[in-house]
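This part of the workshop introduces the protein records we will be handling. A record pairs a protein's sequence with a compact description of its fold. Comparing a sequence with its tokens is the quickest way to learn the format. To make this concrete, we reproduce a full record directly below:
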Amino acid sequence: MRFFFYGTLLDHDVTALVLGRRLPPRAFLPATLHGYARHCARGVTYPVIVRDPNGTVPGAVVCGLSAIDVERLAAYEGPRYRIAPLTVEIHGRLTTVSVFEPLEKRFEPVDGAWDLTLWQRRYKRAFVDRIRRVLSAHPVYSTR
């Protein structure tokens, strides 16, 4: 399966923690999601995407994910997201991939774009510590 990552999963350490294995850097193909914008969400350090006809969201497509990988990703994202087929652009070509799309009514985006580098400098360490504890308590992670 192929997924478009646009937030914390763009950080290779976070992806390794979630999947239980490190992907090679070449597994992350630069891609752009058109028709959406990426915003900070109120009260959290990770972003959400919202529909915006003039927006674009940079990210990466990761290919070759297994059913177990998707199960782990779904546990990480939680019930506030759904897997949606969306069209992204990779090297000038459009292709449909899966995306963890937020259930917009459950999130409150705030002004300001979310930036991966800024997130890594300010919030990554505390975020990784927190998700490590949360994931270790989740059955998907404790049984494999």
Remarks:
- The chain has a mean pLDDT of 92.
- Residues 124-136 form the longest helix (13 residues).
- The helical segments are 12-19, 67-77, 116-122, 124-136, 139-142.
